[in-house]
């Protein structure tokens, strides 16, 4: 992916960030974040998911909106400090479980708790992909697809550069560093079928949402 970091950003980096500022991206109070999370959860297809995994849950802001759609939801992050906050933020939701998990290395069936049915019905990844190197992003996408049951869903949400009302000069320009490049890695996979996707603009920011289904 053009513009992705040469090596994936470390868990230690994120731990340091969360310990110096508990909600570094303002996900619990910024209107942009709240509206984006509502938009993200609204893209989920109707019905309930038996077993779901959230990758890079941060402090659990989106997690709370995913929770009503899931029988079991495991919310994970590479940062133990973030996971601890997410656990507290969702303490009233007993069907949620939390754990540290770093992608792609720990993203496999044996790292998932026994109570979580394998293969999974849903995997959600919001604002994580561009912290991964190109090769790590490729492996992450492959492992996500492998963990899903046929017909299971992947929901992605990532910030993009697009200015409202403008079109990037070239496709490559649109992909640099941003969610467009992350989502393209998933779009290019033969075992994932894009179902729905859109770019939205709010508060001077833009983000891309994409829903995929694992092909049978
Ligand atoms: C920008 S925050 C996004 C948090 C939340 N998902 C959201 O949409 O607001 C990125 C999160 O991804 C986590 N993260 C980054 N790289 C990761 C990796 N390789 N494995 C798991 N989590 C990772 C970070 O610790 C951080 O909590």
From TrEMBL:
What Pfam families does this protein's entry cite? Methyltransf_12
Q: Which InterPro entries match?
A: Methyltransf_12, Methyltransf_Superfamily, SAM-dependent_MTases_sf
Stored Gene3D superfamilies: Vaccinia Virus protein VP39
Residue ranges constituting the Methyltransferase type domain according to the UniProt record: 53-154
Q: Where are the transmembrane segments?
A: none
Q: Which PANTHER family match?
A: 23S RRNA (GUANINE(745)-N(1))-METHYLTRANSFERASE (PTHR42912:SF45), METHYLTRANSFERASE (PTHR42912)
Name of the molecule in the record: Methyltransferase type 12 domain-containing protein
